[in-house]
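Recap from last week: sequence in, structure out.
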Amino acid sequence: MKSAFLLSLCISLAVPTAALAQTTDCEFMKSEVSRLKAENSFLRKKLAVATAGSTLAPGRATPAVSTGVSLATIGKETVERVEFSLVKCEGNRKAQTVTVELLLRNMAPTRDLQFASAKGIDASGEEYKTYDIHIGSGNDRNALPTNVPVKTRITIPKVLPTTQSLVLFACPVYSDSQPGREVMVQFENVPIAWK
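Predicted structure tokens:
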């Protein structure tokens, strides 16, 4: 009698646990769909603003870098006389990584440049940090000759292919004028091209 009661009690407790697991999975999927809809809406608005403000010549798809190199740029920022042009942001679905390519042009005498780190934040607030930075053939530190464009690749790990853009991409560099201090270089609304 006692064992039959325990068996019926165990069965009655097991059913709500399974139902709770299904409810939790369903709620998670609903929140993911909601997050992706919000991200898509945000990206559509940014694309509409960017397209409306575009002043490109007819037949020309993207602007060119003013360094004489004919690469399209997503954004450009100058910090301590170094021009940082964001050329592309490409995702690798299989490796779940995002590689950001910058073109650096030093407008001062030849100098060393060193990145502190890099991070990206997506539309849902996820933050991704990396130290996988390569300036030319060097790592996170290398010499930048005067007026010579140098490619830089920054690889961000553990980014899911559902992430369509980085709302903020920041890559602080160590200051040349104030040793030991960092100067922020950042780009907003960087679309990810997944391959």
